[in-house]
Amino acid sequence: MSNPLRSLLEEPRPSHPPARVRRDWALLAVVTVSGVLEGVLREDMPLRGLSVVLAVGLAPLLLWRRTHPLAVVATAFGVTAVVDIGLIASDAPALDMYTMVYLLLLPYSLFRWGSGREAVAGLAIILVPAVMSLVVSWTGVADAIGGVAVLVSAFALGWAVRSQQGARERGLEQAKSEERVRLARELHDTVAHHVSAIAIHAQAGRALAATSPSSALEALEVIEVEASRTLAEMRAMVRVLRDEAPADYAPQPGVADLERLSGSSPAGPRVEVSVTGDLDALPVAIDAAVFRIAQEAVTNALRHARNATVIDVCVSGDRSTVSLVVRDDGDPGAADTAHTAGFGITGMVERAQLLGGACRAGPCPGRGWAVSATLPRQVSA
User: Fold this and answer.
1) How is residue 379 annotated by DSSP?
2) How far apart are CA 260 and CA 301, in angstroms?
3) Assigned superfamily of 255-376
4) What is the pLDDT of residues 311-361, one digit of tens each?
5) Is there a smaller number of Cβ atoms within 10 Å at the N or the C end of the chain?
6) How do residues 234-272 score in pLDDT, each as one tens digit?
């Protein structure tokens, strides 16, 4: 089964932020006003009263098209089917109200937010009034084909937007997963280096403790066994994370390595690094995270900041937190889409959150783009 189809059948319906709710209310207001104005101003409208009542009365369904797409489709197209049956039975003219075009948003919503079963059921419901509408207001084969094409286009657009959004969400989850793996690798490499040293010192202690009390010898034996077991377990874990690749125990870059990022090139802005405050004895995970977030932010700025002349990297520390700000002076708004389109920001945010901190990115007042992160000095267990 393809990924888009699987997501249509299985994924939970997402929650919707207040901004979307406000847009739905605005859409309802526009449809209601348009229906009333069309009913008042249009002189050639058949069955004026019924048309306005139907258009305005069904408009509130737009508010639930995201959360209950099947119920909305069933209500709207069920009511129109009943009306069409009544018109056929009474030999009355067909309804002809331009405002009713908003009903095309409902088939779109069905395939955009509904599950697979809802899409199939809704499609069957829609076909009934669609066929009846063709019968009641038949104007020729060309118009019938055009109407069907418009309806199919609404279905296809909903499916396409859903598929694109699903691909985007899967990409974000993959970026988060990759950041977790990278963080786990760095933690493993550093801890494994120290655990190896513990094992070596424990072996040396046992060799030198021949004349010491037996308790000291037993303690050294425990240290050796526990250190060796921990190292073996961590190596097994990292082999899974790295797809059987060998471990590298080299120390990870940290705050002391930020100067690597500084400098300038003929093709890009100058990078200036400023380090202030208490940054001694940072935990290895925090030290590495500061460098990685700064590195990713500088890379993004070099790639996307249009007409920027300088990129400031400022790191400061106090007794409880480490703060990082990477800011450029690029054109205002020019790189917003480019910055947010990729997964680099997602990785930075994920890394900070895994360590108990926070990371934000967005445009600066005036001009430029900034990435700011706050990390705790101690990583909670």
Assistant:
1) -
2) 16
3) Histidine kinase-like ATPase, C-terminal domain (3.30.565.10)
4) 999 999 998 999 999 999 988 765 555 455 456 788 888 888 888 899 999
5) C
6) 664 555 455 544 545 456 788 999 998 887 666 678 899
